[in-house]
Hints:
The protein folds into 2 domains: 13-32 and 82-108 and 246-344, no CATH class; 111-239, no CATH class. Helices cover 5% and strands 41% of the residues. It contains 3 helices and 23 strands. The longest helix has 8 residues, at 100-107. It is globular.
Amino acid sequence: MSTSPVRAAMVPVTRQIRAYFAPMNRTTGSPSLFDPGKYGAFLLDAPPAPWLDLGWVDNFQRLSTTLTEPLRAGIPGAPTAQFRGPIDARIEFDFREWGKLQMALACGSEHMNVLASDPNANPQPSGGTPLAAVAVLSGSTASEIVLGVGAVSNFSVGDIVAVDADYQQQTGYVGTGVAAAYVSNPADVNRDANYVRRVTFNLGRVAQETVTSLLLAQPLLGGTPLTGASVQKVVAFVDREGGSFFQEWSALFVAEGESGGRACFHYPRLSPTTAIEMSMPLTATAQPRAVKAFQRENSIEVSKPISSLALHAAFQAMPHVDENDGQTVVCYRSYFPAAMAAVY
């Protein structure tokens, strides 16, 4: 009779993958880092700052085309060592929820807020001349936007608002808290004072109003509004196929174990790319050849004739230098074993 101990569950069993993204400092190239020792198995509905919960995703695929090459020596050309070729890793999945950030990531370029338009303005696909912005007053916080008596009447409970500074013809990255676009020449954006609010991620939904202020359902990503900031109503979001700007974010994907374990995939730097479909498998001598390239929405049937639209997103993993040993990596995979599970 065997006396070996029974092995506890070591198989991660999960229903879906949860996606979290955090902004990068585009000016310095510094990513947001997920430290598994610091954050541990956090509550999925309460991620640690600065991580933003983007909901459950489907069709999660991690693709690696990084090849290893042998170093051969001797008459028979036997392999004596190995080295890695160019690092190339991608990731694809479907966002099941639509929002400002989900659309921006699936699109990949500048993502626009459609500001409430002046009725007499000429029509534009990304929004024409908007209604005048309302100045944000001192005393405002990330959750309370002080406008003063009378100005509050320009907004209603339930409105989405963009809170950011006027564009002042500067060049470089623009947007409070998150780099939302890059301006090379003020003439490119028509020197539009509203341009930063057209692209900013500094958004909130009005939950309540007082006589003098708007109370937001969630704090602004950029924190307390900058001095001189203004607020405008947002009626929709719009993205565009094309453009020269590339989004770049840090990402974390969590497979919550039904059996107690948890697997995490942390990408310090992800930049949207074109989704690809391979025509041939990877081999030691052949690179994959793309036969179809696309960015799309997937239609997922609920019950005929009803279906839901999922945003398909694809990303190129960008390199990060690990400070512990100076190695260049693109992804960290961590595993939190279930309680009392075997170690190996």
